[in-house]
Amino acid sequence: MSNEHGWATPAPAGLVALAVACFTFFAVLTGKVDHSCIPLLGCWLIGGFIVQLVVGIIELMEGNTTGGNVFTFFAAFFMLVGGLEFFVKFMAHTQAWQIDARIDGWAWSVLAITLLMWTPAYFKAPLLLAGVVLCLDVAVPIVALMDLKVIGHGLAPVAGYALLFAGLIAIYISSAIVINTAYAREVLPMPGPILKDTPKEAPATKDSLQPCVEKAG
């Protein structure tokens, strides 16, 4: 999240949108609300799509490959497709349409596998951000397997609480970025990454014998 080209980081807005999705999915998966809420949930997710798409584009423009790509595919599949599907499923329920919703499980499986395989990249991100991703690593595969009818809905609360924790951490991170930036110092602590780059020495030459230290972007 570089400001080299004058962009302010949009990550806090993207994290708030993620938290909204996490909290609302938690409410659905744990039975805090009934399924008559589905069209309203679709509206909230489409709102989140707008935020996360903007965030993803700016992050990519700033050279943040990991965050930019994650925000972009979250915007498309978790937010926009998820929101539109809730409207379709609600209509299917009210109009007695016959829909094989297991196709969602196949699509969610791609998202789950991708998220799991990209997780090591977040070991070099701030610790709390890695925590958000690890919570999603629990929730998304469970949702995929439930949609595939491989497992029953008994694990839905597990996915729900993993999403709740992800949302809470996302709110904290977004608050830390905004407040710490406003005061130009660390007001809210942000622990460093699990893995840190080690300095690498450049080969000695006649022109320069000084070590070259590579810093994480």
From TrEMBL:
Keyword entries, A-Z: Membrane, Transmembrane, Transmembrane helix
Q: What is its main location?
A: membrane
Instruction: Report whether Glycoprotein shows up as a keyword of the record.
Output: no
Q: Which InterPro entries match?
A: Gpr1/Fun34/SatP-like, SatP
Q: Where is this region: Disordered?
A: 198-217
Q: How does it sit in the membrane?
A: Multi-pass membrane protein
Q: Where in the cell is it found?
A: Membrane
Q: Where is the signal peptide?
A: none
Domain of life, source organism: Bacteria
* A matching Pfam family: Gpr1_Fun34_YaaH
Name residues in a coiled coil: none
Transmembrane stretches, by residue range?
A: 12-30, 37-58, 70-91, 103-121, 127-146, 158-183
Q: Which family does it belong to?
A: Belongs to the acetate uptake transporter (AceTr) (TC 2.A.96) family.
Question: What name does the UniProt record give this protein?
Answer: GPR1/FUN34/yaaH family protein
